[in-house]
Design a protein that fits this description.
seven-stranded mixed sheet; alpha/beta; 12 helices; six-stranded parallel sheet; binds zinc ion
Amino acid sequence: MKIRAAVLERFGEPLVVQDVELAAPKAGEALVRLHACGVCHTDMYTASGVDPSGYAPCVLGHEGAGIVEAVGEGVRSVAPGDHVVTLFSPQCGECVNCRSGKTNICMAIREQQNAGYLPDGTARLSRDGQELRHFMGCSTFAEATVTSEISLAKVDPEAPLEAACLFACGLSTGLGAAMYRAQVQAGSTVVVFGLGMVGLGAVVGARLMGAERIIGVDLSAQRLELAQRHGATDGWLADEHTVARVLEETGGFGADYTFEATGNVGVMRQAVEAARMGWGVATMTGVAGRGETLDIVPRYLITGRTVLGASFGAVKGREQVPELVERYLAGEIDVDSFISHRIGLDEVNRGFDLMHEQDGIRTVIGFD
Ligand SMILES: [Zn+2]
Ligand SMILES: [Zn+2]
């Protein structure tokens, strides 16, 4: 079938929206009609060419939500009509990692996905007979896509797809970092460094876990205000004294939990140093630049701090994304307030501009 899609033709250049060919789903795959897709930092990062593992031409986008239209042979976990959220972090349930229960990093289709292909090593996307590769197993900057069935989370059809798409990446990453990776305890003190989509998700996650004090730290006063609407008890403008201030306000000890959501290794270090001696847990969610390392004075570890990292917030996508969506439907997560701009697919490059200018939290592409 013919679909409209945003193609990354060459790194560092705007995406080109055009007609491309999408083949029918093969065994273990599903065809999804997209209704909404968030514009995420990772899309922009790949388009820029800075990511050494990027490839072109490909169809970008990985924060999609839509409705299953057809399924390939042997597909039992989703059916036409199901509402789904795409998962760049799939969950097969059978590989050594999925069976362990200790991680959300599924091994089943990792190699093929990283190379831009579906699990059988081929692409369903093409143009004039020339192959176009898939992105993160999703390619959701398009009217429709074909993904592996293990890359889809079936969600409550009551949830508006425009809101559901945010659970495909940034929001779940932040929520999960607090709820599933760090497992914030009730009554604790939390500091969140960086209040973009992921950091705001961590604020909400900490609130849902019953944290008593949640300090949001960012360079933007507007974001501090937004964080406070989502449960932060304090909003601090970031500066070089943030660590000292955390220590000062916690009797010299530090915070029970800190979260880093900036990708800046200097801020990661602050998150480690602001964590409480004895039991503080510092969780890193940001993606640092190529070759950058996190500096930690070993004394911080010997005196009882733990440093964690989380990809997709340690969320087991097929099981837990539907649960998080239910909490949105129950009124516990105000997802709609994160959507700052709504655009059509043809304006996808404007979505990148808005992100570049740090204008708003999330731009969502609508396909209706
Ligand atoms: Zn993303
Ligand atoms: Zn697996």
